[in-house]
């Protein structure tokens, strides 16, 4: 798998799984009815932030990551990232590759840490993945997420020193 800078031409491949993941309402704090143009504007962020895609040998987009500073000003030394993997390619190491790539990007870009602000506690696959890469849950916002089937569940804040 190759991870490369996302281009505008990748959006038609990203949008279907992006929309599916968001509309399911199980893992991210995006509005469930987020439209395509607004979603594209939220995902394709300007430098120094970065958007990448993971592609297979045939060029099929398997997943995507958005990497950015977590805060501005005196908090701009902490990075963050958001990941989406096409459910058709789940369990194939795409999320792990994107997460490892973003950690390397943050480190080489001079960030001192990475922080994920809102990891849904019922998203146990993501929590386990992040922990395996060295992230720790440093706090949980009780009932911070309205899960469509589990009700109100916590949002983890996860951190990794770089």
From TrEMBL:
Domain N-acetyltransferase: from-to ranges: 1-162
PROSITE patterns: GNAT
Domain of life: Bacteria
InterPro entries, sorted: Acyl_CoA_acyltransferase, GNAT_dom, Mito_N-acetyltransferase
One Pfam assignment: Acetyltransf_1
PANTHER family reported in the protein's UniProt record: ACETYLTRANSFERASE, GNAT FAMILY, N-ACETYLTRANSFERASE ACA1
Protein name per Swiss-Prot or TrEMBL: GNAT family N-acetyltransferase
């Amino acid at each position: 798998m190759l991870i490369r800078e996302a281009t505008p031409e990748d959006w038609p491949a990203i949008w279907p799984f992006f929309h599916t993941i968001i509309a399911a309402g199980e893992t991210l704090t995006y509005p469930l009815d987020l439209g395509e143009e607004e979603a594209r504007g939220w995902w394709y962020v300007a430098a120094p932030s970065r958007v990448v895609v993971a592609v297979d040998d045939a060029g099929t987009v398997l997943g995507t990551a958005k990497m950015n500073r977590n805060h501005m000003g005196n908090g701009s030394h902490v990075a963050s990232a958001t990941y989406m993997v096409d459910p058709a390619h789940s369990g194939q190491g795409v999320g792990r590759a994107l997460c490892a790539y973003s950690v390397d990007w943050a480190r080489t870009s001079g960030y001192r840490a990475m922080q994920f602000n809102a990891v849904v506690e019922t998203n146990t696959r993501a929590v386990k993945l992040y922990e395996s890469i060295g992230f720790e849950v440093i706090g949980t916002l009780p009932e911070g997420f309205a899960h469509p089937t589990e009700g109100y569940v916590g949002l983890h804040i996860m951190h990794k020193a770089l």
